[in-house]
Amino acid sequence: MNTGDDVIISAALTGAVTPKDINEHIPLSPEEIAEDAYRCWRAGAAVVHLHMRDEQGLGTMDRERFAETIRLLRRHKDCDVIINCTTSGDSRASDSQRQAHVAMLDGIEMASWDAGSFNWMPGGVFVNSPQFLGQLGGILTERGIKPEVEIFDSGMLGVANYFVETGKLRAPLHYQFCLGVPGGMPASVENLHYLATHIPPGSTWSAFGIGKHHLPILFTALALGGHVRVGLEDNVYFSKGEKATNAQLVTRAAQAVRLFGKQVATPDIARKILGIPPLAAD
């Protein structure tokens, strides 16, 4: 467990599916995503988790869209936010398409590594084969990109351990507990406590709950000594019937951290906690 006083807030801005019809504040273009990321950093996010959308608003693993978003975000010279890119932003993408950006682009400091496959109800199978995970782990390790080990169910902890033992991932790991996804582990205090107490000593972890489970899991993560993730990828409402913005969700998370008696981690502090090298100067 994290026993320090600094709490990392991650902002998951976009996701791959939810349309603007549901919440008009969801950023879709590289320009919108970069500007929303900047606003979230100003509100207290140390990490921004990036998905890309195509011209139709659907999730895409287009390498050039990642590159353009990173370029636009880093155009803000004062912004030192940690850039964390998805590797599972399009169910239609091949394994090679899912890895192209992390294999070739500079400026990516973290990337998701989803620790297994499961039935993402009711849409289909979320596929992360052992072969893909081994290839992706090798790329991230070779390029010095910190894996964000996404855990949707308890059995995935053993999958992550396997790839540490085989050298494809390097301990200590950072885990992201993804709770409340239909087909995954339900978002409950008991389940988060189980996951947080069954990871190797020295690990770091963060958590989020989908939709209405957003706040209960946020508060539980703070109580258990973890870090937190918020954003429109996971929850589109600020309160019942009130649509949220990403910056609003980050601001509330920062307030919760401070009310809990802790402090919001800066990107520099977050890099030290996560074992990420300092941001290189231009």
From TrEMBL:
Query: Which cofactor is essential here?
Result: Zn(2+)
Top-level taxon in the UniProt lineage: Bacteria
The entry lists its GO molecular-function terms as:
3-keto-5-aminohexanoate cleavage activity; metal ion binding
Q: Which PANTHER family does this entry report, sorted A to Z?
A: 3-KETO-5-AMINOHEXANOATE CLEAVAGE ENZYME, 3-KETO-5-AMINOHEXANOATE CLEAVAGE ENZYME-RELATED
Asked if the Swiss-Prot or TrEMBL record annotates the protein with the keyword Cell membrane, the reply is: no
Q: Which InterPro entries match?
A: Aldolase_TIM, BKACE
Name of the protein in its database record = 3-keto-5-aminohexanoate cleavage protein
Q: What is the lineage of its organism?
A: Bacteria, Pseudomonadati, Pseudomonadota, Gammaproteobacteria, Enterobacterales
